[in-house]
Amino acid sequence: MPSSKAAVNYREKEFPMTDKDFKRIAGLAGQYTGIVLGEHKRDMVYGRIARRVRKLNLDSFCNYLDFLESNPQQELSSFINVITTNLTSFFRENHHFDYLQEKVLSEVKRKNSAQKRIRIWSAGCSSGQEPYSIAMTLNKFGVPADWDVKILATDLDSDVLAKARAAVYSTSDIDGLEESTIKNYFQRSSGNKEVRVKEKAAKYIHFKRLNLLEKWPMKGPFDFIFCRNVVIYFDKPTQKILFNRYADMLAVGGYLFIGHSENLNGICDRFENLGNTIYRKIR
Ligand SMILES: C[S@@+](CC[C@H](N)C(=O)[O-])C[C@H]1O[C@@H](n2cnc3c(N)ncnc32)[C@H](O)[C@@H]1O
């Protein structure tokens, strides 16, 4: 019997998933992504991995795991892509973009006026709505045309990155945005079902696949980093390492934006808490 609090018998489902299978999945997820899969994630894991078992015409989770472990070059990225949770939206946690517009961008512009350079990182960018929202905010702010501005947008999941690069979204994804934002930054398709992010926002962004647990090829320094709703899936020791590395990557006085249910208390003391999940590097 599974030890989960729900009385679900995973042995009687379409594909059997034993306790041992679940532990193997959780172990591989932790090893390759840093994502912690606790007992309460069993249903979610079942649904997501069952998709791969079905797709590969296998008959059990155990056979799937054997296949994954003996063919990582073939299956690992699909495994990672189903394990990650990619929920995101344009201008999610809107106060962060207001703060960029009202405070951060004018400060960065003043500070970097000699180099005329701005460097931004959206870490765990999912399908792109976050870096595009940053780009729209930059464009609205009015960075001078001769400035060298780059937004690095990274994620581990290759499927969401492909969507992000395509810059095409369903019209429902822009529901609730201000009419002026829609008009300025989105091109409607002829059938009116999809929209494409306009070049004046897209031009700043470079999408790259990057596992946050691995070596980072870039040197920084970044003026600000968004890493929102990513570390919530990691354990505390991983969070400590990650926030310390973000501090190393930020310019002195650089900003870090994290997710609404995340904080740095007892995790990293190199930032000053400005409130509203906005932090500033102090050392
Ligand atoms: C919930 S989404 C957050 C998207 C966006 N930052 C936001 O707040 O709307 C979390 C993203 O983190 C990514 N992720 C998870 N583990 C990762 C890792 N080890 N390295 C890089 N990205 C990772 C997932 O693929 C997913 O797209």
- Architecture of the largest domain in CATH? 3-Layer(aba) Sandwich
Radius of gyration: 21 Å
The CATH topology name of the largest domain reads Rossmann fold
> How would you characterize the largest beta sheet?
7 strands, mixed
What small molecules does the structure contain?
S-adenosylmethionine
Mean pLDDT: 95
Task: Specify the overall morphology.
Answer: globular
> Uncertain segments of ≥5 residues (pLDDT<50)?
1-6
The helix/strand order is: HHHHHEHEHEHEEHEEHEEE
Could you name the CATH class of the largest domain? Alpha Beta
Strand order of the biggest β-sheet: 6-2-1-7-8-10-9
Q: What level of helicity do the residues show?
A: 40-55%
Distance between the amino and carboxyl termini:
50 Å
**What is the assigned CATH homologous superfamily of the largest domain?**
Vaccinia Virus protein VP39
Structural class: alpha/beta
